[in-house]
Amino acid sequence: MQPPLNTVSEDRSPAHPHQRYDTPPRPPAGAGSGLPPNRLILRTVQHVGGWTCLLSGASLIFAGAQTVFPAVLGRAVDAALTGHDWLPWLVGCGLLVGLLILSDALSDLAGGTSTARATAWIRRSALDHVLALGTRSGRRFETGDLVARMVGNAGDAGRAGTLLVRAVAALVPAVGGIVALALIDPWLCLTFLVGAPVLLVLVRSNVRDASELAGRYLRVQGNVATRLVDALTGARTIAAARTTARERERVLAPLSELHAAGMGMWRVQIRMAAQQALLVPLLQIAVLAVAGIEFGQGVISAGQVLAATQYVGLAAGVSSVVNSVARLARARAAAGRTAEVLAEPPAEYGTERLPEGRGRLEFRAVTVRDTDVPVLCDVNLVVPAGALAAVVGRSGSGKSLLAGLIGRLVDPDEGQVLLDGVPLPELARHELRRAVGYGFERPALIGDTLADVIAFGPERPEQPVLAAAAQAACADDFIRRMPRGYRTKLVEAPMSGGEMQRIGLARAFAHAGRVLVLDDVAASLDTVTEHHIRQVLTGALADRTRLIIAHRASTAANADFVIWLVGGRVRRVAPHHELWSEPAYREVFAQADPSDGPWAGGTE
Amino acid sequence: MTPATPWRPRRPHWRLLVDVLCKRRVVLARMYGWSVVAAVPAFLSGRLVAAAVDHGFLTGHPEAGFGWLGLMALSALVGAAGTRQTFLRLAELVEPFRDELVDLVVSGVLRRCSIRGDVADTAGVARLTRQVDMVRESFANILMVTQAFLVTTTSALLGLLTLVPFAVALVLPPLLISLGLFLASLRAMATCQRTAIVADEGIAEAVTTLAGGLRDVLACGGEEQVQAAVGRTIATQEGAATRLARLTTLRTTALGIGAWVPLVLMLAGSPWLVAHGATTGAVLGAVTYVSMGVRPALQILIRGVGDSGMWLLVTLRRIVEAADLPVAAGDVVEPRLESAGFTPTHRPRPDGSALELHSVTFAYTPQADPVIRDLNLFLPYDDHLAVVGPSGVGKSTLAAVMAGLLRAQAGRVLLGGVELGEWESQQLVRHRVLIPQQAYVFTGTVGENLAYLRHDATPAEIDEAIDAVGARELIERLGGCGAHVAPAALSAAERQLITLTRAYLSPARLVILDEATCHLDPAADSRAERAFARRPGTLVVVAHRISSAMRAKRVLVLDGSRALLGTHDELLTWSELYRDLVGHWQPIEYAAASPSPSPRHGDISG
Question: Which terminus of chain A has a smaller tally of CB atoms within 10 A, N or C?
Answer without folding.
Answer: C
